[in-house]
Automatic annotation (TrEMBL):
Organism: Marinimicrobium koreense
Protein name: PilZ domain-containing protein
Annotated coiled-coil segments of the chain: none
InterPro entries: PilZ_domain (IPR009875)
Pfam families: PilZ (PF07238)
Domain of life: Bacteria
Record domain PilZ: where: 8-120
GO molecular function: cyclic-di-GMP binding
Length: 126
């Protein structure tokens, strides 16, 4: 009898996303690449060692300059910042064959961030 697959622990489906972002906590910050994300979590690729520990509260700021989605552009037209800010926790950080990977659980910081995140995840190109 084949082994049963473990139950999915994620509440929301992950969508492929390629975006440049910043992870920050107090005066510590590093650049990351967002690989995939859902409404409450993301997987990140890091070019350098993350100066943070698992369990720490962080802010994930995703730059939206390169996103060419009419819905996102419409929302961004009404504000000066071209980014979405998410507050969360660093869940894990580990070495992989392609470098360092980290997992983050988060929540949007404002209603605008929530709308932008929803539109970003609804893009047909992922």
């Amino acid at each position: 009898m084949p082994a049963m697959a473990p139950p999915e622990r994620r509440e929301h489906t992950r969508h492929p996303v390629r975006a440049i972002a910043r992870v920050a906590q107090a005066n510590r910050c590093c650049s990351v690449e967002v690989v995939d994300m859902s409404f409450n979590g993301a997987r990140l690729n890091l070019q350098e060692t993350l100066p943070l520990d698992e369990g720490e509260e962080i802010t994930l700021t995703i730059e939206l300059e390169d996103f060419d989605s009419p819905d996102v552009s419409d929302v961004l037209a009404y504000q000066s910042r071209k980014l979405v800010r998410l507050r969360g926790t660093l869940v894990h950080c580990q070495e992989t064959d392609s470098g360092l990977a980290a997992g983050v659980e988060y929540r949007p910081l404002s209603e605008v961030d929530q709308v932008l995140l929803t539109l970003l995840l609804a893009r047909p190109d992922g």
